[in-house]
Amino acid sequence: MKLAAYIFIGLVVVVMLAFFILGKKSQKGSAPGLVDGRLAACSSKPNCVSSEDDTDAKHKVDPLTGVSLLDVREAVENMGGVITSSQDGYFSAEFRSNLFKFTDDVEARQDGANVHIRSASRVGHSDGGVNRKRMAALRTALKAE
Length: 145
Known about the structure:
This protein is of the alpha+beta class. The protein contains three helices and eight strands; from the N terminus they run αββββαββββα.
């Protein structure tokens, strides 16, 4: 084999190992929970979406309407989420990616007729749009019920 092939294989192994380590790191911790009765704000990273009123446009999704928190919880579980915390008017769940086991947190809170939602990756900068797509899939699942 040529030297270039060995270098390429070495780089692939290093990148795969780095993703594996990040995946393991993301399995530690938990969702931020409620902050002053609201879902935590998204950081500046593009790996989070939220329906809270003060969320900036790049992180904003609409709240869920016409559904109960229990409906949302059941849909999240049906989508593969594992409930990690539950209290009156709030729950959090974890989703893990298949290959590297990256952990994303999904949170929801009842706010009158609305259910506010937040989905965020625990590690990394970008999520490739996974959290926004998950919230769109959640909306679709709720409409199908």
